[in-house]
């Protein structure tokens, strides 16, 4: 009980194979893979028919509520490969004043290292450990790097992490403190990714970039699994998701299909809203223009560093999910994002990160434009704790050696 | 289900009265109270015999795992008074490399506003709301103020929050962003408290200072309740707790007595170690000198801002619990604290706050001094997320326009 108090029990696993997300070509599970031969992301496939026969919703609900309750729908075979830092189920928090009576925030800032990146990285690092990887590299806008450093250091895997030079200071420092070899690069995340790719070609490390290996998406998928369970096996009417690389959106869409195949939910789906910043909105542009792939966004800039991703490898998967769902891709101005952060904190006591603020701003615009109704049940994803980001300064000093003007306090 | 997805069900309540912690004098429940007439903290009493007949450990375990599963042992009568921001059960995380095979960290940084202060403040603010309070004031070293501002803003209660001028910048800013009226004062927390007390005498606000009202301790008590449940209704051999005002230590000690009265645990208790900084160690001095009360510590200084409390109102309750438990009060140097933070982050991937680092440093010293054994099961309390505190700077720049020296990465 004691020393593995936060770990899952041993469970049977059901992974059958990996599959190219573009061509459907199969690849063997339990081998180290990056992209498919078509250069596209690989997806993990499970024997869902057998899971459906051998597992029930009630069994899942009776387990401890961390993300390992979903073990049969996850790729890690052996309990001892799980490199856990306590991946709790994140709470759904109403924001009635700043959002509305039917708006819930899924507060992903409660996860290890303070962001939803922990979901993907705990899975990818556990699988890397299981498959014998000794050195990992990755580009990051901050939070993914922090999660990678923490999990990798915990199991003795070396990491090289490259981030844009203006990545939030807290992110860079936590990566280093958690044992990552972190470098500030004079470029954006895809330009950092190009350096990682070159090192990968040279055989220097395993590449853990978004969607360049099959397992981060399996971790992110648990956001969709959790949401279904937390809402009584019924999905919300709409989901607003801050979209950079889009792994979480793609992952949730996959999760909903798997839950339906198990017979645990029906065929209804939430409208999926991919939220981007007006200063970096490649998915929004592609959505509006009706194309399947997105062009690189030049001169990307936004206060929401986490969604400053000029080019996403999974663009076609994001666009497909958004369109199938009847949702949309929406761009919001930084000013609206910062106002949303201030409103949620000041009125509902919930400190969002800028990317989370962007989802509230997008919800407000979608409501005004009639894309969602005021009675629709809506979930906004706050992808990280707001504490990592700059907050407005305070200039209130009180001299206790002078008479106190209590009326002014 | 939806809009109160994170709230408890309606439950019966069992509060009987309030009781002076020094004289045993009774006071009526469900009325607004500060200190007892003897100037000492009031404790909440319950009809434990009836709870024991009507509630079981199994019933508790079958509920959602947030802190409201303990509702019968908590003071809030009506569900609608609970001002929740998602008070999850915090995980226990092994730190085998930096701590040892039997060392678990209870990671309180996962709570709303990133610290264990949320436990006390959600309870005190919910009760203040229930009892009609409109304006609250409090001194803080940072985290308590952040929690107060968040919960109070959420239910429309105005707050005035006073902190030492060198309180961590992130704390001051989050208090303001979350709607608190925050003032930096040229003094320590007890000197801020004197200003709050003067305003209380003038009838300007309700005083939510540590132990000056009965409910913060009831919230903090849930740390002890959770620990018992998480460890299979068996307490650890030792608890290391960062001690400023000491509410949590007093609260856990009360929780253990209540659990024993219910017959849910036996009479065994952990050794309680009250951890202070060498630069502010009034409880350690009183413990070493065998006195019941502690003198104010002059010229208090430490990097662990949260435990820079020169004078604790509950000193006699802290000292009583520590002595009854067979534990000790221990002081650690800032250098050892910062080394412990670096070790836990770099070796186990867990970013502790300085106060949490102090508990690891104290554990190491207690182990060296034979106060605990290497086989003892130990729980360290990491009272807040490490992300709020300064971290060492990083000087690693990489110019992507120059040839990359991959061997140097």
From TrEMBL, chains A, B:
<dbReference type="GO" id="GO:0006565">
    <property type="term" value="P:L-serine catabolic process"/>
</dbReference>
<dbReference type="Pfam" id="PF00291">
    <property type="entry name" value="PALP"/>
</dbReference>
<dbReference type="InterPro" id="IPR036052">
    <property type="entry name" value="TrpB-like_PALP_sf"/>
</dbReference>
<dbReference type="GO" id="GO:0004794">
    <property type="term" value="F:threonine deaminase activity"/>
</dbReference>
<keyword id="KW-0456">Lyase</keyword>
<protein>
    <submittedName>
        <fullName>Putative threonine synthase</fullName>
    </submittedName>
</protein>
<dbReference type="GO" id="GO:0009097">
    <property type="term" value="P:isoleucine biosynthetic process"/>
</dbReference>
<dbReference type="GO" id="GO:0030170">
    <property type="term" value="F:pyridoxal phosphate binding"/>
</dbReference>
<dbReference type="GO" id="GO:0006567">
    <property type="term" value="P:L-threonine catabolic process"/>
</dbReference>
<dbReference type="InterPro" id="IPR050147">
    <property type="entry name" value="Ser/Thr_Dehydratase"/>
</dbReference>
<dbReference type="InterPro" id="IPR000634">
    <property type="entry name" value="Ser/Thr_deHydtase_PyrdxlP-BS"/>
</dbReference>
<keyword id="KW-0663">Pyridoxal phosphate</keyword>
<dbReference type="GO" id="GO:0003941">
    <property type="term" value="F:L-serine ammonia-lyase activity"/>
</dbReference>
<feature type="domain" description="Tryptophan synthase beta chain-like PALP">
    <location>
        <begin position="83"/>
        <end position="383"/>
    </location>
</feature>
<dbReference type="InterPro" id="IPR001926">
    <property type="entry name" value="TrpB-like_PALP"/>
</dbReference>
């Amino acid at each position: 009980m004691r020393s593995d108090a936060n770990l899952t029990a041993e469970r049977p696993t059901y992974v059958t194979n990996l599959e190219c997300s573009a061509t459907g070509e199969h690849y063997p599970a339990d081998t180290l893979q990056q992209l498919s031969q078509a250069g596209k992301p690989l997806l993990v496939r499970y024997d869902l028919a057998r899971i459906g026969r051998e597992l029930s919703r009630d069994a899942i609900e009776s387990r401890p509520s961390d993300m390992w309750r979903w073990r049969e729908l996850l790729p890690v075979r052996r309990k001892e490969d799980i490199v856990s830092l306590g991946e709790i189920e994140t709470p759904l928090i109403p924001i009635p004043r700043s959002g509305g009576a039917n708006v819930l925030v899924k507060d992903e800032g409660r996860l290890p290292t303070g962001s939803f990146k922990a979901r993907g990285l705990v899975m990818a690092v556990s699988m890397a450990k299981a498959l014998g990887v000794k050195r990992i590299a990755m580009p990051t806008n901050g939070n993914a790097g922090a999660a990678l450093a923490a999990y990798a250091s915990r199991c003795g895997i070396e990491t090289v992490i490259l981030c844009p030079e203006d990545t939030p200071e807290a992110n860079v420092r936590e990566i280093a403190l958690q044992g990552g070899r972190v470098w500030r690069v004079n470029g954006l995340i895809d330009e950092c990714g190009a350096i990682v790719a070159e090192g990968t070609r040279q055989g220097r490390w395993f590449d853990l970039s978004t969607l360049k290996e099959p397992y981060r998406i399996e971790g992110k998928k648990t956001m969709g699994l959790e949401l279904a369970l937390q809402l009584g096996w019924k999905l919300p009417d709409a989901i607003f998701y801050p979209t950079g690389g889009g792994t979480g959106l793609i992952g949730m869409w996959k999760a909903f299909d798997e839950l339906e195949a198990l017979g645990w939910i029906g065929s209804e789906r939430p409208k999926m809203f991919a939220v981007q910043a007006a200063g970096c909105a490649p998915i929004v542009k592609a959505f509006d223009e009706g194309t399947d792939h997105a062009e690189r966004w030049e001169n990307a800039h936004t206060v929401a560093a986490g969604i400053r991703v000029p080019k996403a490898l999974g663009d076609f998967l994001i666009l497909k999910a958004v369109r199938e769902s009847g949702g949309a891709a929406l761009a919001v101005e930084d000013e609206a994002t910062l106002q949303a952060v201030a409103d949620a904190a000041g009125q509902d006591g919930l400190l969002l990160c800028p990317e989370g603020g962007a989802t509230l701003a997008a919800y407000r615009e979608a409501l005004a434009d009639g894309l969602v109704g005021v009675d629709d049940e809506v979930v906004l994803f706050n992808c990280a704790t707001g504490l990592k980001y700059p907050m407005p300064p305070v200039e209130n000093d009180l001299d206790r050696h002078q008479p106190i003007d209590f009326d002014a306090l």
